[in-house]
Write a structure and sequence with these properties.
Length: 352
């Protein structure tokens, strides 16, 4: 599964290129609790097709009901997707509306609706995103004219009296070292979370059993793959082989990048040994090693590969979203507090 914004924009581009009328809805303001953050987008085609989301579903249904001929008979009025400059619409202003649209108590959101976006501009934007470029889409509110700019860094949505500026980035990327069973579960979860996933394993016996479609699998050495991967602030690197010959050099290269998450599987004892090796053989400082996460995941008492993958994916998403987890959710801290013995078996090596 690819980045949701790219999916929405690609569908909208295709509808408009085929001559279909369509609108783009963007969440521009929220008050109180809201189902989706500002900047979230949804595309609606004249036939009622919807891609993306601005709520849990009820607001999407209302937009379909208001703007597509397929629902005109139910409403008693021949509503069609209008033309002209963008317009604003609010949902959840009253308690009754919040209940009607399934918004949380006190939740209100405001949408900007753009009618029949220019297919050529959409095609240019999608092409740039597919090429891995970070783009800012600036909409002039007076007439809906759109300007595209390459962005230097991800930015929050900006809205004033004259324009809306929303930044769209390429997919988040995940590089996994090792093609074992745990990697299969983690890669599958990452795909559904919108990550583009690359798996590296020079060991033929592991690559031969790989069975997750949609993942790029490479046999090259991990440190070379990390270098070629060119990890940025939308990338994470996770070592899962338990083999220092494969994991350590990959982690060393990853720590030199801007990756938002760099981590390795293993027990508390293995993690401490890894830090010692990197200090002794690669002269990494404590400050540099502070970026290296391990044991990775959040403590959920997991023992099986799918449970461990859930705990790792949860931590990656938290870091990606800028959420600081309580210390007692860290694997090492939680086990220390609970007096969990270290490394009594191979299960403890993997368990998180």
């Amino acid at each position: 599964m690819e980045n949701l914004d790219v999916t929405v924009l690609r569908a909208l581009r295709d509808w408009r290129a085929a001559g279909k009328r369509a609108l783009l809805a963007t969440v521009v303001r929220t008050w109180g609790s809201s189902p989706r953050p500002t900047g979230s987008i949804m595309a609606l085609c004249e036939d009622g097709s919807v891609v993306g989301s601005v709520s849990g579903g009820c607001i999407e249904d209302d937009l379909i009901h208001r703007f597509t001929p397929a629902y005109a008979g139910k409403s008693g009025a021949g509503h069609e997707i209008p033309v002209g400059p963008p317009s604003f619409v609010k949902y959840g202003v009253t308690a009754d509306e919040a209940h009607r649209f399934g918004l949380p108590c006190g939740g209100t959101l405001e949408l900007l609706l753009e009618y029949d976006p220019d297919p050529a501009i959409l095609a240019e934007l999608v092409t740039a995103l597919e090429a891995g470029r970070l783009m800012r889409r600036v909409v002039r509110l007076a007439d809906g004219q759109v300007r595209l700019e390459e962005a230097g860094a991800p930015e929050e949505l900006e809205l004033d009296e004259a324009r809306l500026a929303n930044t769209f980035g390429p997919e988040y990327r995940m590089l996994l070292i090792g093609a074992g069973q745990l990697t299969e579960y983690l890669a599958t979860m990452a795909l559904f979370c919108g990550f583009a996933v690359t798996v590296c394993d020079p060991r033929e016996e592991y690559r031969g059993a790989w069975s997750v479609p949609g993942v790029k699998l490479t046999p090259d050495m991990p440190d070379d793959v990390v270098t070629a991967f060119r990890a940025d602030r939308r990338s994470c690197v996770v070592a899962l082989t338990h083999d220092p010959k494969l994991d350590d050099l990959a982690l060393l290269e990853a720590l030199r990048t801007d990756a938002f998450y760099v981590g390795a599987i293993g027990s508390r004892r293995n993690n401490a040994s890894r830090h010692e090796r990197m200090r002794e053989h690669f002269e990494l400082t404590d400050a540099e090693l502070a970026r290296l996460r391990g044991p990775i995941g959040i403590y959920v008492g997991s023992k099986t590969p799918p449970e461990i993958a859930v705990s790792i994916m949860a931590e990656i998403i938290a870091v990606k979203n800028g959420v600081t987890l309580p210390r007692d959710m860290e694997v090492a801290q939680a086990k220390n507090l609970r007096g969990v013995p270290g490394d009594p078996s191979s299960a403890e090596v993997c368990a998180t």
